[in-house]
Description:
single chain; alpha/beta; Rossmann fold; 2 domains; 18% strand; elongated
Amino acid sequence: MKADYKNWMPKGMVAGFACAATVFLILTIVFAALPISANVKTVTVVISGVATIFFLIVTVWMFLMYRAFSYDGKRKMSRQIIDGVASYVNIPDGGKGLDIGCGSGALTIACAKRNPNATFTGIDRWGKEYASFNKALCENNSKAEGVSNTTFMQGDAVKLPFEDETFDAVTSNYVYHNIPSRGRQAILLETLRTLKKGGCFAIHDIMSNMKYGNMQEFVHKLKDMGYEEVHLIDTTKGKFMTGFEAAWMGLSGSALLVGRK
Length: 261
């Protein structure tokens, strides 16, 4: 049995855009052949032709993303990122970790492997936009990896169902930028609320000013709140990806917020 972590670019989405490109191409050909007035023909052919080009470009972009993220492909960016984030998580025996937005369980399981004498909880809302990601998939992946120190549950990152200072580590990867919010720093604070004093955190996301506001100020805010250690690490300059990859993939601004409370 092999773990199936799926792909961050859903195959169904790639197929959907490819189908749309094909449909508009057929419409372009049909409109061009119809015995209609020249003006109407020009308008319909141009509109359907532009739509064809648009969907074709997006399809190619999605396919390249799919190939780069694939766990079985050559680039394996997803695996590199997951292992990279997990490398910052070290908690004591008997401790507890929380992975927010666990998806297919990849980061939860990676952290559990690195800390076999601790337990890790993965939480996700498993929305319809990622329909192939679910609790059963996470549990099956844990079994496939021979990992028994994980549990998974449904929940909301904006309001976590845990008491203050419950966990020895909290992690997340490319989750919060997907949440419609004008206050993602508040979501970070909600995550860190559940962390014990002395616990570690590793949160990776697209932390651009547009999505998060000034993260350097947030780092200083955490230090003023008494956090022992806080670092904001740019992951687009060779750590997890190159600047070129970040640019064409739409991942510019990706950074890792790590430290200890």
